[in-house]
Specification:
four-stranded antiparallel sheet, alpha+beta, single chain
Length: 321
C-alpha cells in the first residue's frame, strides 16, 4: 500500500506528481519533496513559496520542514529569505548530524553554501495584496494577520517508509522573524514509519500550545484509527483553549498511518485536503466539523473551478477601484 495526504486544495497538482512516483515504488522522501516543491513554485498560492504573502516589512520569510519516519531524522528552516525551495533545504538539513534547524541569515548562509537557488520570492501580486491590506487595516480596522495556509503532507511508500513535510510563508503581515508551528517538530509535523504521521495548518501560535502532530501520532500508536486520532486531538485541544483562554485559533490536522489509512479534523467551517492512495486517485475533499465529527465530501467540479478562478483573478489596488 502507498498513500499521500496533504492540507488544502493547493496541493492537488503536487499530489498527482507524487502519486506517479509512489506507484512505481519510488521513495517517500522524493515524492513528498516533489509534491511540496510544486506548491512552492506556483505563484498564485499566496501562503507558500514564490508569491507567498510578506511580513509587515514587505519581506517574504519562509518556513519549511522535512522528517524521515524510518530514521526520525529532521531538517527545518525558518524565516529564510530569497531562496526558491525551502523544503529542499530542509530535507538537506535532515541529513546533517547536528544543526538540523537553521533560521534567518544562518539558514541563508547554509543554503548558499550548498548551492540552492537564490530567488526574489516577492511577486508583484503579493505586493498588491500587501498594499491592499494596509488600506483595509486603515479603513475597516480588520486584523492584519488573516491568511496562514501551510501546505503539510504525510507520505507512505511501497517499502513502508513514511515522511512528513511542511512549507509556508506564515502569517500575512507577521512581525519580522516570527516563526509558527510549521518547522517545529511535534507541532507542525511528526512521522514514525512504525506508526504513522501527521501535519498541521492553522494558527501556529495555538497549534504549538498543544503539540498536536505528535499527539495524533501518539494516539495512533495506541491503535486508534487516524480519523479518530485527529478528531480527538483537535476537539479536545480546541475545547481546552476555549476554557483557558476564551478562544481557539484555526487548527486543521491531517494524518495517515503505516497501513495507508487516513484521517482529517478541523475546527473551522470548511477545510480542504487532498488524498491519493493505491486504491484512490488524487481527490480533493472538503471537511466540516459537525458536533465533533468531521464529515468529508469530495469537492464538486464547480467548487474546483471556482477555486482556481479565484486564485488567478486579476488584482487591482483598492485605491484604483
Amino acid at each position: 500500500m502507498w498513500g499521500i495526504i496533504a492540507t488544502w486544495r493547493m496541493a492537488l497538482e503536487g499530489i498527482e506528481k507524487a502519486s506517479e512516483i509512489l506507484k512505481k515504488s519510488g521513495d517517500a522522501g522524493d515524492a513528498i519533496e516533489i509534491a511540496i516543491r510544486e506548491v512552492e513554485d506556483f505563484p498564485y498560492y499566496k501562503s507558500v513559496g514564490y508569491g507567498g504573502l510578506p511580513n509587515e516589512d514587505m519581506e517574504v520569510e519562509l518556513d519549511a520542514a522535512f522528517m524521515d519516519g524510518d530514521t526520525l531524522d529532521i531538517g527545518a528552516v525558518a524565516a529564510i529569505k530569497d531562496f526558491a525551495n525551502p523544503i529542499s533545504i530542509a530535507r538537506r538539513l535532515s541529513k546533517e548530524k547536528v544543526n538540523n534547524l537553521l533560521v534567518g541569515s544562518g539558514a541563508e548562509k547554509y543554503a548558499h553554501k550548498e548551492g540552492f537557488e537564490r530567488k526574489n520570492m516577492l511577486t508583484k501580486r503579493a505586493k498588491i495584496h500587501y498594499y491592499n491590506r494596509i488600506d483595509e487595516i486603515k479603513e475597516q480596522q480588520i486584523k492584519p494577520y488573516s491568511g496562514h495556509d501551510t501546505v503539510g503532507m504525510v507520505c507512505l511508500d511501497l517499502h513502508g517508509k513514511m515522511t512528513s513535510a511542511t512549507s509556508t510563508s506564515g502569517l500575512f503581515m507577521k512581525k519580522a522573524g516570527r516563526v509558527g508551528d510549521s518547522p517545529i517538530s511535534g507541532s507542525g509535523f511528526y512521522v514514525d514509519s512504525k506508526v504513522g504521521g501527521a501535519s498541521a495548518t492553522g494558527l501556529g501560535e495555538d497549534v504549538m500550545k498543544g503539540c498536536l502532530a505528535y499527539e495524533i501520532v501518539r494516539l495512533m500508536k495506541d491503535g486508534i484509527h487516524p480519523q479518530e486520532a485527529c478528531e480527538t486531538a483537535v476537539n479536545m485541544f480546541d475545547l481546552e483553549l476555549k476554557q483557558r483562554r476564551g478562544q481557539a485559533g484555526d487548527m486543521s490536522l491531517i494524518a495517515m498511518n503505516n497501513k495507508g489509512q487516513w484521517g482529517v479534523a478541523t475546527n473551522i467551517e470548511n477545510f480542504s485536503f487532498v488524498v491519493a492512495t493505491a486504491t484512490e486517485k488524487a481527490t480533493v475533499y472538503i471537511t466540516k466539523n459537525i458536533n465533533g465529527k468531521c464529515i468529508h465530501e469530495a469537492a464538486s467540479q464547480e467548487w474546483l473551478d471556482n477555486y482556481m478562478t479565484a486564485r488567478k483573478k486579476t488584482l487591482k489596488r483598492n485605491s484604483d477601484l
